[in-house]
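Subject: for your reference before the review

Hello V.,

The reviewers asked for a structural picture of the protein, and I figured it would be easier to keep everything in one thread rather than splitting it across files. Below is the amino acid sequence we used in the manuscript, unchanged from the supplementary table.
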Amino acid sequence: MKTVLICAGGPKEELVPFQNFKSMNEIVYIGADKGAIHLLNAGIIPDEAVGDFDSLSKEEYDLLTSKVAGVGAVSSEKDETDTDLAIVKAMEYEPTHIFLTGVTGARMDHFIAVVNSIHRFQSSADRKICFKILNKWNEIFLLEPGVHTFTKNQHFEYISFFAFQGPVTHVSLTGMKYEVHNEMIEMGTSRFTSNELLNAEGSISFSSGICLVIRSSDE
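And here is what came back from the structure prediction:
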């Protein structure tokens, strides 16, 4: 399993704990704009850094170029976000998993852009890649139709399901506090928010649509 962790420039207080990944054998670190500085400050030298780096001071940019071999600087006048550029770079490593952190902070427009980008990249990839958005309190990902199993996680106590871009049909939830069978998650509903796994494992199955899943913690 090869994993790429992309760190964008969101508030450092919201970043996923990097020690969760240091034991992985095959992991690639990519900094998107100021996310590269977040990685350096955590004692991690990124394998790549991409972006226009317009949020970096001269001192930070000089530090970046002195530490990171692969710095891909682009013009600030571009169609892609820095995170999009980082995802494109990540896919060159042919990973099985791409995790993104630093994208859920003050710039909620960037967060929505990342969710849409994940959908676009995930659906267009010639082989399946698991994309997840991570911070200290949440993991967010998209599921396609089928049966998907979740393992109980004491940190992510709550699990919520939302329709993404259209209804999710023939939904069944098992092993959870609130179980359903053959129901629909409609756009705009909050009914499937804040469920909990009761058993060691639970599952969702559905026949059509894209399901946005958020696993959350209160602390």
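For the response letter, the relevant points are probably these. The longest strand covers residues 158-174. The mean pLDDT is 90.

Happy to draft the paragraph if you're swamped.

O.
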